[in-house]
Amino acid sequence: MNKKRVALVIVLVVFIAAAVYGLRYYHHQQNQPLTLYGNVDIRTVNLGFRVGGRLAHLAVDEGDKVHPGQMLATLDDVPYRIALEQAQANVASARAKLDLAQSGYRSEEIAQVRSQLAQQQAAFDYADSFYHRQQGAWAKRAISPNQLEDALASSHQAKANLQAAKDKLQQYQTGNRPQDIAAAQAALAQVQAAMSQSALDLADTRLVTPSAGTILTRAQEPGSMLSAGGTVFVLSLTRPVWIRAYIDESNLSQAVPGTPVTISVDGQPGKQYHGKIGFVSPTAEFTPKSVETPQLRTDLVYRLRIIVNDADDRLRQGMPVTLSLAAEHQPAPVLADGSADGHDNAR
Q: What CA–CA distance (Å, rounded) separates 206 from 22?
């Protein structure tokens, strides 16, 4: 009987020890940082001119570091300067026409039309008087019917010329019609837009960098004839530097945007970079072959984008890196009753 009790106690002690060890091991595993694997993803920009022409000068070469707004290359701008000068002349001509339309006629022109009106008035008075005299002669049968009709026609012609002179004087005194002024304004706006485009084309003969970075590729040489949009340089951006990583579904709940991440590189022992999770893909995909991961490559994973906060030149495009998600940022395990692990509650 005593032997059975001893055996039972031994079994019970072994069971308790195993349970304690298992619980400690479980907590130890839960407190271990989540390790992921990924590759550095640095954005590149293809730089080119918005206009075509002959490449005149290159100011940088492959490997040069550039800053925003720095001039990289220029085109031969002579054709664009000539086009701008022509556009400026067209604007000056259209503006003069508009000023003329808005100002109306000169006083000298109005005076000349008044003189023409006086001449037509005199001509009508004479033709009308002659017609009336001819009517008196016709009443005495001193002239033929044709002579009377000729006098009447001359009177009507003189009256029409007089009315035309009056209308012309009124036109000169009133000035141009609003429609004519609006047409002149539209013509001026059109040539001004053409001048602005010519000025923009001239400015586009200078290629400047939009962001800080390093010249990765120099694709053209001076003297080359370029079409609009052709690549001259490939720029590797200094910022942002991202890391593309993948996480399986079982650990997906730990990948929360904004979570801090520690980054290490095999070629730099002891050097660590810091970043945070910026994006978690909402769709699953198969693990790319370029990613070294302990999981099977046929597993479905979710893509992560890690934003590196303290990147430097030693992080190169495609470089493999190891990511560590700190344990204290991981969610607490949920127990069977739905409550969190009792460690935090005990404290």
A: 69
The mean-pLDDT minimum among 182-186, 212-216, 252-256 falls in 252-256
Residue whose C-alpha is closest to residue 97's, from 193, 210, 184? 184
Q: Which tokens go with 333?
A: 């395990």
Q: How far apart are CA 123 and CA 111, in angstroms?
A: 19
Query: Do 87 and 185 fall into the same domain?
Result: yes
Least confident window among 46-55, 168-177, 324-333: 324-333
pTM as predicted: 0.61
pLDDT at position 331: 46
Are 16 and 37 part of one and the same domain? no
Domain count, the chain: 4
Question: 166 and 150 in one domain?
Answer: yes
Q: Are residues 53 and 139 in the same domain?
A: no
Neighbour-count burial of 237, counting CB atoms closer than 10 A to its CB (0-12 exposed, 13-18 middle, 19+ buried): middle
Residue with tokens 């700190």: 326
* Structural domain range at position 230: 44-75+203-234
Q: Are residues 119 and 175 in the same domain?
A: yes
Q: Which amino acid is at 19?
A: A
